[in-house]
Each structure stands twice: as structure tokens, then as C-alpha cells.
User: Which sequence fits this backbone?
């Protein structure tokens, strides 16, 4: 089918103004939060499931690949669309369709912004627990595709623990429902398979999520440490006391500097690292565990332990944590964030490796991360206009991925594999494991028309030159 015929038929489905195909207009759709870039042939903005289904059927018939796009905050290149592919985005499907206070569920469209859902249901005394640091911008559709995590996922689990079911359009336009309509479902957990499938199984058009009651009591601690080693020891000590905090985040000295450049979060400028710890539960329970948290922090060398006195102070501490990545702009114009996981007990070892790699490559690396989960986010700060610096950052990242795998960890805590980390999959999976995963994908998308070229190693990227694949290839040679 000629491109012009394809576009005409798309316009007939969604309306003229909801098909974007001018080069200038497509510029904002050629990237996400990662380093890859590719301009799709067109972007379509459907208004409902029926339109999504007809768009998918049309693309399927025309042999055109389709990539879903939420808010484009993904950090692994998931929404990057091949040049001949069609991007389907959801700014028009952004309604909270229903909130059921009795059963504590909400039915939402995929374009709903994570924080908008949480703010809305708080009016009913409930909350949506998964809270990615990008929650002001990222969408529920993107969250389920990446199985997003967040600071409060330490106690409550990642997105998959909060999704009950969803309506999905398959690659040929068929509409199916995965999971339950109530809080429990029987049979194969196809819902669980879909969450985290990075847009390769289908396009979610509505999502039924689980809500939690807002806790009776919340207490937020700032543990201030002279160095990162003692802060790492404190992380293990807190968990060692048998405490599962709602959140346990680490912010290193460089990140503190960046945050304090843009907002006064109350982090001391001379700290080597701070831990942001939150307890939630019944008043008595929180009161009792408070003593254990304080002991764990003092015993491991805290220079000071502060407790937020009111909601405003608590909010300030969290704003600092959640704006850290943006604040890195005050230190360098570009950043590249590595998402790796190690067992909590290996945090000290891993952060020493980060510091060694930083020195050897001459790249500044800041660390702000979900310490309780052992989920690191070494963030390389650089100026991409400097020749060779991007290649060095990629090579340094590859070393960090290798170290995570060697320490018994894995490649991603929450950002997904996408384009960014697919060549590292052999570090943690045998060929047979990956073949088995691809057979599962074939059950959902036999023609592999949805988000192809992601997750599994195939050597392809959409990276502005210089192409870093040479580093990756060298690592596996
Ligand atoms: C500053 C910053 C902080 C971040 N912090 C966190 C964090 O704490 N935790 C975390 O987990 N992530 C974090 N992220 C990463 C990112 O925000 C998450 O991966 C988020 O889930 C992506 O949502 P999105 O709407 O932007 O999706 P996009 O980037 O648009 O897309 C992500 C993937 O979802 C697929 N997709 C989108 N919509 C649909 C749909 N309806 N159906 C099927 N597939 C779909 C896309 O094809 C793509 O593969 C952060 C990112 C930034 C920039």
C-alpha cells in the first residue's frame, strides 16, 4: 500500500487532525528519555479502543510495524519507532473512567498520568502505590509496559502487583481482555505476562488497577552520613532489623549538590550521602519501628538523623529526591542513566566499582537510587558535544552492567531492556531462555509487528553517530 493511501485510511479512522506526518511535527516523537533517535513515518492519536483496533488492523494488513507511546519518559528506548513504523500515542485516551471505593479499584485509559491518578483517588482516602520518580509525566500505559517501579515499591511491589486486568488490542486488531474484572482471577496469568512486555505483546487500551487505603501514619527520616560506604551499611542494617520501610532511597554527595542547586530540599551540603526512609502504617506500629530505624542509622555511623516534622517538610524531602535527575542539568548538559540491580549486600562493592569506572573513564557519575531494592541508577554526567564522550559513557555503562551481573544482580530494576540493554541480555540469560521468551511473544504477536527490535540482541540501534555498538561488540568478542 502506498504511504499516502495508508495515511488517508488512518485519517478516515481517527480524523484528519489526529494523524501527524509532517517532519517538523514528528520531531518530538523521534525520541524518549534514552539515547536512541528515530523518526516514525507517522503518529496516530486514537480516541478509543475501536479506533485503536481499526488502526492496528490497517497497519497489520499493510505490513507496517506499530509502536505504542505513552509520555516518552522511558529510559530504555521502548517508544523509539523504526523509520517505516507507525507510532500510536494516547493523549486523547487519558480519562479515569471509574473509581470503585468499595472494591478499591480504578479503571483508567492508558494515557492517564500516574500522579493524576494518585491525586484523584486520594480524595476518596485511597492511593495508587507505584510512584516512579517520573510520576508527574509518565502514563499508566507506559508503566504497565515497563512494569514501572518507584520509591514506594519496596514495600508495595512494582506495577504488576497493582494491575488486575486490562483490555488489549493485539497486532491484527483483535481486542482481548487479560486478567480479571475483580481482584482475583484464575487460569494462566496472561495479565502478569503482559505487564513488563515492553509494548511487544499488544496495546493496552484500558487498565483496571488496585488501590490501597492511605496509611494512618507516615514518618519520613533523613539519615545523614559522612560517606557512601556507611550509608550502604545502614541500608542492610535497617533491613536486618526486620523492618520493611515503605521507601529507602539513597542520594550521594554530587546528587545532593545538584538538588540543592535547584531547590532547598533540606539535604545538608556537606553530607557524603543521605538516606531518605519512610515508614507507613498504624500509629503505634510506626512509633515502635521508629526506634529501630533510628538505632540502625546511629549504629552504622550516621552523623545526624532527622525526622520530618510536618507534611510540608516531608514533601520538601521528596521533591528533592524526585527532581534529582532534572537537577543534574545544573552540573552537565547531558546525562545517561544506568539501571542495574545487585543484591542489597553488594551495594558497597557495586558503588566502589561505579567510582572506579568514573575515574578510569574520566566521567562524572552521580548516584541517586532505590537502595532498599538494590536498584542502582549510576548517572553519567557529560557534554555530548565533546568528541568521544558518548562512546566513553556507553563503554562505562557496559562495564557497570557486567559488574551487576557478576555480583548476582540483573540488568534492569524498572526501566526495561528496550533498545538500550538488549545486547546485554546474554549476561543473564542463555540462548534457550531467550528463545522461550520469544515463543511467549509469538503467542501474543505471531508476526512480531509490535515494537520489533527490542529486548532481544540483534545488533540494531537507532543511535546518533558515533555508533556505540563497537564497544558492545568488543565486550562480547
Ligand atoms: C526523570 C525520570 C525518572 C524516572 N524514574 C523512574 C522510576 O522511579 N521508576 C521507573 O520505573 N521508571 C522511571 N523512569 C522511566 C519511565 O518514566 C518509566 O519507564 C515509565 O513507565 C514510562 O512511561 P511513559 O508513559 O513515558 O512510556 P513511554 O516512554 O512512552 O513508553 C515506554 C514503553 O511503553 C510502551 N507503551 C506505551 N503505552 C503503551 C500502551 N498503551 N500499551 C502497550 N505499550 C505501551 C511503549 O511502546 C514503550 O515500549 C524515569 C524516567 C525519567 C525521565
Assistant:
Amino acid at each position: 500500500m502506498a504511504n499516502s493511501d495508508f495515511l488517508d485510511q488512518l485519517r478516515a479512522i481517527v480524523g484528519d487532525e489526529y494523524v501527524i506526518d509532517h517532519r517538523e511535527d514528528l520531531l518530538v516523537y523521534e525520541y524518549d528519555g534514552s539515547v536512541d533517535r528515530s523518526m516514525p513515518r507517522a503518529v496516530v492519536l486514537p480516541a478509543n479502543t475501536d479506533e485503536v483496533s481499526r488502526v492496528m488492523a490497517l497497519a497489520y494488513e499493510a505490513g507496517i510495524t506499530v509502536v505504542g507511546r505513552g509520555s516518552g519518559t522511558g529510559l530504555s528506548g521502548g517508544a523509539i519507532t523504526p523509520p517505516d513504523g507507525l507510532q500510536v500515542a494516547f493523549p486523547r485516551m487519558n480519562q479515569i473512567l471509574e473509581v470503585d471505593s468499595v472494591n478499591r479499584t480504578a479503571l483508567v485509559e492508558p494515557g492517564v498520568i500516574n500522579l493524576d491518578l494518585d491525586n484523584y483517588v486520594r480524595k476518596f482516602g485511597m492511593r495508587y502505590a507505584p510512584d516512579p520518580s517520573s510520576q508527574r509525566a509518565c502514563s499508566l500505559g507506559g508503566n504497565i509496559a515497563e512494569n514501572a517501579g518507584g520509591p514506594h515499591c519496596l514495600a508495595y511491589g512494582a506495577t504488576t502487583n497493582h494491575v488486575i486486568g486490562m483490555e488489549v488490542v493485539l497486532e491484527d486488531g483483535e481486542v482481548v481482555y487479560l486478567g480479571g474484572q475483580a481482584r482475583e482471577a484464575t487460569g494462566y496469568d496472561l495479565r502478569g505476562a503482559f505487564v513488563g512486555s515492553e509494548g511487544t505483546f499488544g496495546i493496552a487500551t484500558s487498565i483496571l488497577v488496585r488501590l490501597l487505603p492511605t496509611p494512618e501514619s507516615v514518618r519520613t527520616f533523613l539519615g545523614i552520613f559522612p560517606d557512601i560506604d556507611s550509608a550502604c551499611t545502614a541500608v542492610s542494617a535497617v533491613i536486618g532489623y526486620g523492618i520493611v520501610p515503605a521507601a529507602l532511597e539513597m542520594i550521594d554527595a554530587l546528587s545532593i549538590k545538584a538538588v540543592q542547586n535547584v531547590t532547598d530540599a533540606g539535604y545538608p551540603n556537606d553530607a557524603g550521602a543521605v538516606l531518605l526512609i519512610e515508614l507507613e502504617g498504624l500509629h503505634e506500629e510506626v512509633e515502635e519501628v521508629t526506634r529501630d530505624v533510628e538505632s540502625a542509622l546511629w549504629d552504622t555511623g550516621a552523623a545526624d538523623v532527622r525526622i520530618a516534622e510536618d507534611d510540608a517538610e516531608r514533601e520538601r524531602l521528596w521533591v528533592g529526591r524526585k527532581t534529582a535527575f532534572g537537577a543534574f542539568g545544573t552540573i552537565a548538559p547531558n546525562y545517561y542513566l544506568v539501571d542495574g540491580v545487585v543484591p542489597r549486600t553488594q551495594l558497597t562493592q557495586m558503588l566502589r566499582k561505579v567510582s572506579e569506572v568514573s575515574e578510569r573513564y574520566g566521567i562524572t557519575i552521580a548516584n541517586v537510587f532505590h537502595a532498599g531494592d538494590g536498584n542502582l541508577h549510576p548517572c553519567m554526567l557529560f557534554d555530548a558535544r565533546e568528541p568521544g564522550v558518548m562512546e566513553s559513557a556507553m563503554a562505562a555503562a557496559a562495564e557497570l552492567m557486567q559488574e551487576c551481573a557478576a555480583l548476582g544482580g540483573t540488568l534492569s530494576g524498572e526501566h526495561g531492556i528496550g533498545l538500550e540493554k538488549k545486547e546485554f541480555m546474554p549476561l543473564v540469560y542463555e540462548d534457550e531462555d531467550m528463545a522461550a521468551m520469544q515463543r511467549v511473544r509469538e503467542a501474543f504477536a505471531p508476526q512480531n509487528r509490535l515494537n520489533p527490535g527490542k529486548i532481544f540482541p540483534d545488533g540494531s540501534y537507532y543511535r546518533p553517530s558515533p555508533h556505540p555498538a563497537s564497544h558492545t561488540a568488543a565486550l562480547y568478542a
Observations:
- The pocket of flavin-adenine dinucleotide is lined by residues 32-33, 67-75, 78-79, 90, 110, 132-134, 138-139, 141-143, 145-146, 148-150, 198-199, 203-204, 325, 414-415, 451 (CB under 6 Å).
